[in-house]
Amino acid sequence: MNTIDPRTRLLLEAPIGATLLRLAAPNVLVMVAQAAAGLIETYFVGKLGTDALAGMALVFPIVMLMQMTSAGAMGGGIASSIARALGAGRRDDADALVLHAIVIALGFGLAFSLALLLGGRWLYAQMGGSGASLQAAVTYSHWVFAGAMLVWLFNSLAAVIRGTGNMTVPANVTVVGVIALVPLSPLLIFGWGPVPALGIAGGALALLLYYLVGTLALAAYLWSDRSLLKPSLANVKLRWLLFRDILRIGLIGAISTLATNLSIGVATSLAGGFGPAAIAGYGTAARLEYLLVPLVFGLGAPLVAMVGTCMGAGQHERALRATWIGAAMAFTLTEAIGLAAAAFPRAWLSLFGTDPAMLEAGTLYLRAVGPLYGFFGVALVLYFASQGAGRLLWPVAGNIARLAVAAIGGWLAIRWGGGLMQVFVAQGAGLVVYGVVIAAAIAGGAWFGRVGWPCRTATLLRRIQPG
């Protein structure tokens, strides 16, 4: 009989709310630190001039797509698979999943490298880059995506450790790395003493060094006596079943990630019909929506581990209770931020500019959509819980429904003579649909078979219990 590790027992037996909050704290710190890393690099690259900053801005959405896919989508699949294996007492499978996660990371990292090294210039030109800004984008992109495998390895190893319920080690590695970036970025960008000035390439190189050292630190922990997992690269045979367990969650999650970014892109395009100030106002206001993603991820990552472990152990009722407690926490956090933004929109918008037309457009967005941010928070945290359960069909369906409502509703608003406010109302309606679809599906039993409403918890549990 396998002895349950204390960390696994914590996920299976400790009070849910207090445990989620305690595990979420280091994750939130990680997200703040990673956001700080991007701001640090942007700040110093901005000192090189407008062309360098514009070039970096062209590459940023692709870097974010890689980050969200590796850390959130595929990372969630990795953490979920390991948590469910540990919860079911399959220690050998949990150990073997580490190697499978590394192989997946190397494969996707190589794919990103080839795609952007070969097609980056064409892509950034299609996005509007030209002249010096396009050249800056290509230079920065070549350096960053030459090391794409480091980004994937770092995020995948962090997901492996989070899958065991350990949120502290990835947090510590990330925070220490960001502290090191503060002097490293300007050193490589501007040079000093024997170190030559590398310009925008120096910013990319500093970022890759951060991921390299972080990857080595995470690997050193995993292969140390302190790690719950005992991976071996020598004696493990690659098995399709273990690859499938990760990929069936990670690939579906990637679709959801793409839909999220498409929703922002469609809204930007619709706002563009009202002029550059509308684009600037929407883009500035929507940065707050992007900020909600890492904040909810801080809560969602431990929820993946807890739900996955409970599902693996057959504790379905506890998995559902943890899910709804996490949803309540996420709603409270994101709704408070949205209401504050709606009440005081210029407190956020004025951080990025003072143009009156931009401020007016951004204010319209925050007043229309901000009060509905709670639905966005619920949708995101239920997406993470569904990763833990290994059931992502309805979260993806909800995100696609959000995209459809926002895009079609915004287009109809313009076609029927509506203004910018009506376009933003459609974006808010999309968030409501996103949250309601996922919550209703889980409440109706989507994790355990056919969906049917209404479905009380007791009835649902009777349906899923064996025998």
From TrEMBL:
Membrane topology type: Multi-pass membrane protein
Location within or outside the cell: Cell inner membrane
Pfam families registered for this protein in UniProt: MatE (PF01554)
InterPro entries (alphabetical): MATE_fam (IPR002528), MdtK-like (IPR048279), Membrane_Transporter-Flippase (IPR052031)
UniProt keywords, alphabetically: Cell membrane, Membrane, Transmembrane, Transmembrane helix, Transport
CDD domains: MATE_like_3
Transmembrane segments: 20-40, 52-76, 97-120, 140-161, 173-192, 198-224, 245-271, 291-312, 324-344, 364-385, 392-414, 420-448
PANTHER family: MULTIDRUG RESISTANCE PROTEIN YPNP-RELATED
The protein, known as: MATE family efflux transporter
Species classification: Bacteria, Pseudomonadati, Pseudomonadota, Betaproteobacteria, Burkholderiales
